[in-house]
Design a protein that fits this description.
The protein has 319 residues and is an alpha/beta fold. 35% of the residues lie in helices and 15% in strands. The chain has two domains: 160 residues, Aspartate/ornithine carbamoyltransferase (Rossmann fold, 3-Layer(aba) Sandwich); 152 residues, Aspartate/ornithine carbamoyltransferase (Rossmann fold). Bound molecules: phosphoric acid mono(formamide)ester (CP).
């Protein structure tokens, strides 16, 4: 499916109620703020609470691409909301015997699964499922280069915890923008929440084209892009989505775009460093920055549990 033909329309039901989470386009500031508020209410002094909200529900994780953070935090979030959660073993499933994805989903639905968490390399695959399987909720855990909505929501929660708002922030996203579903969802979330100064820093080839740089500021000079930023988000080189010939030389990339302590000093002194993970040390970020005082990378991981608990509770109609 072409990226520009993907619509999130089916994710909202009557009166704007969220019935799937496919992407952040089409969601209002109130929708996003509600999710962040519920996630915040599930954290008590840094510790995650438990709830009984999904104790009558079953959730299936279907990860067709590798994942450490998203898959495991969805599983933990499901358990902490008392859901029955299963990780479907796709490598040994009937998809290997040419069963279509929709037939697999219908089969799992017949096992009384209420929610499906789907990661897939194809843009729009979760949307296709949501349009064709009725009576279940679909959560997009990352589709191709299109969207990663729960990642953006946990990023917004982390920013809000440190900066207490979005309107007056300068946010820089550094790295492989063009192949990044995270960048796409983060930009959408920041715009919806009122951030005006969004800077995308990347070399030509990893940067958006001019049409997508319309409402953001695009830089190829990292020094200029980082100046006085409040938030610096770093992205890895997503080689799995590049042609062999397009993969940059890692040393050269680090020399020109790696986030080092020296470059980070150009941002505001209280700026935070974020990364969706997995991080590649010495390629897009130096260890001294990834592990430094300004890094909130592991806090993002923990916030992923709260955000995914919140989204599942909302989809279940329990929050
Ligand atoms: N941020 C993220 O999506 O990481 P995983 O691929 O480990 O889930």
């Amino acid at each position: 499916m072409k990226k520009d033909l993907i619509s999130n329309d089916v994710q909202l039901g009557p009166e704007g109620k969220l019935i799937h989470l496919l992407g952040l386009e089409g969601l209002s500031k109130n929708h996003l703020t509600h999710i962040l508020d519920i996630a915040d209410s599930l954290i008590d002094d840094g510790n995650l609470k438990k709830s009984k909200a999904l104790d009558d529900m079953s959730v299936a994780n279907l990860f067709f691409e590798p994942s450490t953070r998203t898959r495991n935090t969805f599983e933990i979030a499901g358990k902490r909301t008392s859901a029955n959660i299963i990780n479907v073993d796709l490598a040994n499933s009937a998809t290997k015997k040419n069963e279509s994805l929709l037939d697999t989903m219908q089969t799992l639905k017949a096992m009384q699964i209420d929610m499906f968490v789907i990661r897939h390399k194809q843009n729009g695959l979760p949307h296709h499922v949501a349009e064709n399987i009725q009576g279940v909720s679909i959560l997009n855990a990352g589709d191709g280069i299109n969207a990663h909505p729960t990642q953006a929501l946990l990023d917004m929660l982390t920013i809000r915890q440190h900066k207490h708002g979005f309107e007056n922030l300068s946010v820089a996203i550094v790295g492989d923008i063009v192949h990044s579903r995270v960048a796409h969802s983060d930009i959408q979330a920041l715009k919806t929440l009122g951030t005006i100064d969004i800077r995308l820093i990347a070399p030509e080839g990893l940067q958006y084209g001019s049409e997508r740089c319309d409402s953001v500021k695009c830089f190829d000079d990292i020094q200029a892009g980082l100046e006085d930023c409040d938030v610096v988000m770093v992205l890895r080189l997503q080689k799995e989505r590049m042609l062999e010939a397009d993969i940059p030389n890692e040393q050269e990339y680090f020399d020109n775009y790696g986030l080092t302590a020296e470059r980070m000093a150009l941002a505001k002194p209280d700026a935070i460093v974020m990364h969706p993970g997995p991080i590649n040390r010495g390629v897009e970020i130096d260890s001294s920055v990834a592990d430094g005082d300004q890094s909130v990378i592991l806090q993002q991981v923990t916030n992923g549990i709260a955000v995914r608990m919140a989204v599942m509770e909302i989809l279940a109609g329990k929050s």
